[in-house]
From TrEMBL:
One Pfam family this sequence matches: Trypsin
Peptidase S1 domain: residues covered: 13-164
InterPro entries on file: Peptidase_S1_PA, Peptidase_S1_PA_chymotrypsin, Ser/Thr_Proteases_Immune/Dev, Trypsin_dom
GO molecular function: serine-type endopeptidase activity
GO BP term, pick one: proteolysis
Protein name, entry field: Peptidase S1 domain-containing protein
Classification via PANTHER family: TRYPTASE-RELATED (PTHR24256)
Species this protein is from: Rhodnius prolixus
């Protein structure tokens, strides 16, 4: 089935302009480690807790906003004042461990523009009919280019997102 065909690997898609996704943040946690986040307010970025696993100190994190490409020598980044995760997850060992999110607080508030803007809330409701478990979405993020190896290029790909028992059949919850 579909779940057996899914592989881990580079994010494939088309190059996009930051104007198409001004909420996308590139998070450089080391010279070789890059992940993606979402600007949710003028100084908060939402990302995965996994993204920050190798971080030794918040001074090492560089958050890039308003750019199509991140290069190691880029200087147009924001620094971080705090990281918020569920600290209780380490102690409980329970279902709360499955919450793989982190909030990054930037040292400075960003100036909202055509290339930097918090994500908006989707006004279109999720289908409620029991057979409508899937919805087409755009996934956007930074990754290495699969042909050139260039780091930090902004990509987009159309994906199908699922909800409920039929939509999430391949989710591994523990």
């Amino acid at each position: 089935g579909y779940c057996d065909e899914v592989e881990d690997g580079p994010f494939f898609g088309r190059n996009i302009s930051i104007e198409e996704a001004p909420f996308v943040a590139g998070i450089l946690v080391s010279p070789q480690e890059l992940c993606t986040g979402t600007l949710v307010s003028d100084n908060i970025v939402l990302t995965s807790k996994n993204c920050l696993q190798s971080v030794k100190t918040i001074r090492d994190i560089k958050v890039f906003l308003g750019t199509n490409e991140i290069k190691e020598d880029s200087s147009n980044y924001y620094t971080v004042s705090a990281i918020y995760t569920n600290l209780e997850a380490k102690e409980t060992g329970g279902p709360i461990d499955l919450i793989n999110i982190a909030l990054i607080k930037l040292n400075d508030h960003v100036e909202i523009s055509q290339t930097i803007s918090p994500i908006g809330i989707e006004p279109k409701p999720w289908p409620t009919d029991t057979e409508l478990y899937f919805r087409q979405c755009s996934a956007m993020g930074f990754d290495k280019h699969n042909q050139t190896g260039a780091m930090g290029r902004l990509y987009s790909s159309e994906v199908v997102s699922g909800i409920g028992p039929k939509g999430c059949g391949c989710a591994k919850l523990g």
